[in-house]
Amino acid sequence: MASNMYENPTPATGMKPKQLRHLVWRSLLLQASFNYERMQAGGWLYSILPGLRHIHKNKKDLSKAMKDHMEFFNTHPFLVTFIMGVILAMEEKKEDREAIRGIKVATMGPLGGIGDALFYLTLLPITAGIGASLAVDGNFLGPIVFVLMFNAIHFGARFGLMTYGYKAGVNAISKLKEGTQQVSRAASIVGLSVVGGLIATYVSFQIDYVWKSGETELNIQTDVLDKIMPAMLPLAYTLLIYWLLKKGRSPLTLIGLTVVVGLIGSFLGIM
Amino acid sequence: MLTESILIALWAGIIGIDMYVGLTHIHRPVVSGLVVGLILGDITTGLIVGGTLELIWMGMVPLAGAQPPNVVIGGVIGTAFGIIAGEDPKAAVGIAIPFAVAVQGLITLLFTSLAPLMHKADQYAMDANYRGIERINYLGVALLFLFNAFIAFLPVFFGAEQAAAYVESVPQWIIDGLSVAGGIMPAIGFAMLLKIMLKTEYVMFLIIGFVLAAYLEMPILAISLIGLAIALYDFFQNKDKQDPDKQAPREEEITDGI
Predict the structure, then answer these.
(1) What is the pLDDT of residue B65?
(2) How many domains does chain A have?
(3) Which of A100, A249, A261, B184 lies 20 to 30 Å (CA to CA) from residue B244?
(4) Within B86-219, where are the H helices?
(5) One domain for residues A261 and A152
(6) Does A219 map to a domain?
(7) Which residues cross the membrane (chain B) (predicted)?
(8) ipTM (interface pTM)
(9) Does residue A121 form part of some domain?
């Protein structure tokens, strides 16, 4: 339990609006070191780093916090500032590190889904559609209108959510202080339901093979696998990777394995 | 052609960064059309080709980190070819697609090759070396710039048609294989999350989320709300149990009943 706490448990002084704004600008680099092992982790740590340095003057505490924030992270880049605000408020209060981690993991999945729906599937088609319809008529205002409209909402969301998340974090979390274990438990429940859903939704693993025998055709994916259980291959593959990770295989090996699976599947014409 | 090729390469480098960093969306084909048109001295054609590509490629967005065919290179090459060869916008789409798909595969490789850097980052985190973390991110930005600038330069300089022939000479199964692998890749991220969060007592929630998405095809937001509802129920259940005031009478009731 002691290792879950920081060496210096005194709450840090609050962040000024100017400092928060600086962090919003840094959040633009969230995906600078994007990769298949940790996804946005490097950019996430980069984005909140000045905040962490303000909060943890103790070098050992800073190192602990930095290590935790290098763990796998992936959310929607436009909504990340909300999580940044909440997490910084928690760090500032020197909350239990397990709870901080739990909140981070539990918020990133749902915000990822909300952000995709809101920005990539709604805002982008509307604004780019308006811009493109002007552009195909040869009107140079098309691209300009698109960029202005899109970014008014984009940056509005980034700056607004940072302040909102930070305030929400400070208020809500002080109320929940006594119940950090319940909070991490609740966070795990939400987080794991979402991960279960994400596996079925976003891992695309399909067998593209039709078995023919005389007149009968059997599509392996739709007629066999989907009948047994939809999204069976994504689940099976994720669990296989999970098992291999637990066995101590490095994520790098598993990324390599996945590339090989894709190439073999494509070479044999079954995927 | 050298000056134009270099300017187009610079633009591709900048918007190659924008696609992942900044995300002001100046990397969309509708904007590229205007800029490439400016560089090649034919704004109207640039706008028309860019706008056409935009309308066709509207759905090409990175959902949950999966890579769609690359609109940065597709938009730049498509517009450049449309203007230089005087092709109609639809033909420009045809030439842009093999590039967009090939670069999609290359991006999968780039994001794979960046993974080892994370172990360096772990070391920096351990030493509380914030400069190191910053350097890694700036290195990523630089790589994105060079990668996109280089890929955009060659076909514009040597002629898009010839370059397209090279792209098409890469066996289709390799390009397909990389895109299949890119589709499966999110599994690794999710498995790493499971490694952090999953305890035996929580397995049921993973199952619930999976069933809601796989069988009922619910959107992620709906699933997270159901997860939240369960978490709230669980929270108040446990709170009641721990609260001695509420706990005591309940025990009495039970003893009374028996």
Answers:
(1) 58
(2) 2
(3) A100
(4) 89-113, 117-126, 130-158, 160-169, 172-184, 186-197, 203-214
(5) no
(6) yes
(7) 7-27, 33-57, 69-86, 92-115, 136-158, 170-193, 205-233
(8) 0.80
(9) no
